[in-house]
Amino acid sequence: MSAPTDGRRAVSAVVGRPVVFAVFVGTLLFLVAPVVVTFVSSFAREWTGAVPTGFVTFAHWEQVLGFGGYEDAANYSLRLGNVVEALGTDPLGALDESPLFRSVGLALGGVLVNLVVGVPIAYAVSRYDFRGRDLLNAVAVLPLAPGIVLGVAFLRAYPQLSATDVGLVVGYSLLKAPFMVLAVQSSFEGMDLRQLEESARSLGASWPRTFLFVVVPNARRGIVSGAVICWALAAAEFNFSYVVYSRGARPLALFLQANISNSSFLTTSAAVSVFFVLIAGVTLALQVAGNRGFATR
Amino acid sequence: MGADDAPTTSKTTATGRERSRRLRPEALPDWLPEWVASVAAPRTERDRERRRIAVLCAPFVLLAAVAGVYPLVEMVRISLSEARFVTTGVTLDAYRELATDPYLRRSAWNTLWFAVATTAASLVAATATAHALEKYDLPFEGALVTLLSFPVSLPGIVAAFMIIVLLGNTGLLTQAVAWFGGRSAIDAAVATSVGGLFVAYCYSMIPRALLLLRGSYSEVNGHAEEAARSLGASPARTFYHVTLPQITPGLIGAFILTFRTALAIFGTVLVLQAMRVWTFEIDYLLSNGYQIQLASAMAAVWFAFVLAFTAVGLRYTSAEVGL
How far apart are the first and last CA of chain B? Predict the structure, then answer.
């Protein structure tokens, strides 16, 4: 690789940009194309030839959402038909039967735990200097154990509890806590916390009051985006749910797995598309909250 | 205010100890260690700050202890147990089996080389993508970033399905290859081969690596690059000597985190079943006769390896971990 001395351009000046650009386009297509194809083909009647045909049908969506005669496909539908039917009589019971609402609830539980756990430690690590701070920060920011290892550990440590909602919520909250801590930390980063705290204290607020009513509201952007990210990732958590789950409505990720393993291609497309719609909604909510995508920086 | 303002010293002189004993409130029993007493009933501003730190950290420490440390300890204990359902005695049988079983050894080898290879491939793709995003004038850059980070939130099973969409029996690329090559689509489908699994791993890992590398790229000094270029260095030289050193800490950090992700992948393998990796074996042992001792031993080995790898990686390299 020599510098151009005699007027010829270096090889990398000629091919560098096109190559990098090609990799970029390739990566973009690789990541995005299957998502688009899945979503589009979920509205097709069949896909036997080169391309899906028979647009537009909602049959696959009806099937995975649990409408139009598919209410009983217990493991393969979200059973929304049952939920709508039972709205008048037993709304809570029906909600619990639906993988969608069960996961929504479980993930919300995980987010609540994460709020109580993640916001204070993010503040402690950003604001104070103390022995063991770096270690604590590393533990809080790096996931302690992945879903499958934690699942095995839960099976052994809490044989009764691990299959219940409490077990799932606690597991989700530990698995997703780093994302909350990171999001909140990133919004603390740009603030002069000492000055903020001292101003509030000198104006007469007690320290708990300062923390709850001055510090926390200032970090609301990080807290909201952290909560949304944690929620989406907990709702999608498969490995832990798969090892620990034993009864009740399947969490969303297990509903997806049941479809991916056993359903026809287009039905699975619809099931995965439901999930896409959910994540797209979350991403949109994040952008409204002022963050771009899942960048937690 | 007098007692409140008394300075605390870390010196363990007789007077220092004397003073802290004097400061100790009557209500607290004498046998409590000094630091517990100072946190429970602070007398000085520094003690109060310590109490605040303790209060702020307590919820996390509690969660980590209840949901993380205790279950992991129980897991290690059953892996050492002589009996299957209760923890009694100490035996290394499970670990001996891990070390001698040729299938498991093969699985460990599979896991490691596959994780290294997919991490390397993902980092190359992610670096080029981050480079293009940062250095080139791309239209709709915000939308592109959103699209590229979308897969971060997809679980491994969905990543596997994405690969089926691309490379499965009716997959897009399969159809294209079959059409151009005049082969049957079934023969061209590679989703459930090792190659398909490789691509599926990358599908999960590229967006994560990209997230980290975009951070590193945003801090690269553009003036130094321009100076190098105007002094006659080729783009490749500029990248190698100016850009690369600046993003190296980010690259190493991304390598560590992406490698950890690769080792933890399970759902993808469960769907595609192209190869038996460590996490897959753990699940296999649990669902075939609930061999909790061996499964726990495998999980413990996994945990110890990743912990050691991360600790060494963060300690002895210039890695910069900021997700």
Answer: 45
